[in-house]
Amino acid sequence: xxxxxxxxxxxxxxxxxxxxxxxxxxxxxxxxxxxxxxxxxxxxxxxxxxxxxxxxxxxxxxxxxxxxxxxxxxxxxxxxxxxxxxxxxxxxxxxxxxxxxxxxxxxxxxxxxxxxxxxxxxxxxxxxxxxxxxxxxxxxxxxxxxxxxxxxxxxxxxxxxx
Length: 162
Fold this sequence. Notes:
alpha+beta
């Protein structure tokens, strides 16, 4: 009996905290907290239960609404409405990484092929100094090309629900 009485304040505290946590962690409030740090005109995608996907540019957010530019139309959506909120980012970094790795591999291959053909003027054999130079040049060219291609691609990542 004493142990049950000792648990009553704990159970009461847990019961009182549950509704408060539910009010704070609703999808709209989670979305507006995440969007508070977002720069205007950032690419955004919302999934609305009755309409499906809506893609546009973020304009502003408040506790009760999200405003985005869809084409040339300003669209106001209630903050509680979206099932999920997605933020777009350019893929420059991923493009540069992939392009750089592929460029290094291609450059090393070209360096090996060219070093087998050339001679450095003596009887020492192939020009092995061209192998790392080919890798370096290929990595730089591939990284730059990947960066440029990645800047044209927008990748979306979901911010709510997590």
